[in-house]
Amino acid sequence: MKQPLSEIILGIDPGTLQLGYSLVSCRAEKLELIAMGTLLLSSHKDMYVRLEKIHATVHELIASYKPTIFAIEAPFFGKNVQSMLKLGRAQGVAIAAAMQHGLPVTEYSPKKVKQSVTGNGNASKEQVWGMLKNIFALQEVPRYLDASDALAVAICHYYQLSSPVKRASSNMKNWADFIKKNPDKIIG
């Protein structure tokens, strides 16, 4: 028998100028948006102050909402090495805050997130928002799409947790166990 999923997922879209976050409750296969927003960091010129703000914000979100899982978007590989390094630092600080609270951390590529939400790994931010709007019956477009990107990360993780393949494989130790529990699947 399938166990109902009961989790609160904290999704993060990391950035050093804008960091998106979302919290989604998953109870008995029902999704509910708890919160989403964007941490604006451009007013802080010092990179280390920005990193401290990211750490403090993730810590506050965890303390306030008590998520059980942390999902984050992986940095994409671009041509600007300095941007990549900065983004990696932001991601690392957010992950460190989650790990301090003992949360399991899962990382998803931007392409995987878009594929999970829209069916198209090359979808635009607006297309991702359109799907999220339908999933949650949202009316108001967020001012910054970093928030909806973070929501997409959380939903991507939910889909990974609730996939039939994942559920089936989590009940099996190995192939011998699968065959033992599924004799009707054997041909010949």
Automatic annotation (TrEMBL):
One of its GO terms (molecular function) is magnesium ion binding. It holds the Pfam family RuvC. It comes from the Bacteria. Its cofactor is Mg(2+). Binds 2 Mg(2+) ion per subunit. It catalyses: Endonucleolytic cleavage at a junction such as a reciprocal single-stranded crossover between two homologous DNA duplexes (Holliday junction). Keywords: Cytoplasm, DNA damage, DNA recombination, DNA repair, DNA-binding, Endonuclease, Hydrolase, Magnesium, Metal-binding, Nuclease. The active site is at 13, 73, 146. Mg(2+) 2 binds at residue 73. InterPro entries: RNaseH-like_sf, RNaseH_sf, X-over_junc_endoDNase_Mg_BS, X-over_junc_endoDNase_RuvC. GO terms for biological process: DNA recombination; DNA repair. It is an enzyme of class 3 (hydrolase). Homodimer which binds Holliday junction (HJ) DNA. The HJ becomes 2-fold symmetrical on binding to RuvC with unstacked arms; it has a different conformation from HJ DNA in complex with RuvA. In the full resolvosome a probable DNA-RuvA(4)-RuvB(12)-RuvC(2) complex forms which resolves the HJ. The RuvA-RuvB-RuvC complex processes Holliday junction (HJ) DNA during genetic recombination and DNA repair. Endonuclease that resolves HJ intermediates. Cleaves cruciform DNA by making single-stranded nicks across the HJ at symmetrical positions within the homologous arms, yielding a 5'-phosphate and a 3'-hydroxyl group; requires a central core of homology in the junction. The consensus cleavage sequence is 5'-(A/T)TT(C/G)-3'. Cleavage occurs on the 3'-side of the TT dinucleotide at the point of strand exchange. This is Crossover junction endodeoxyribonuclease RuvC. The gene is ruvC.
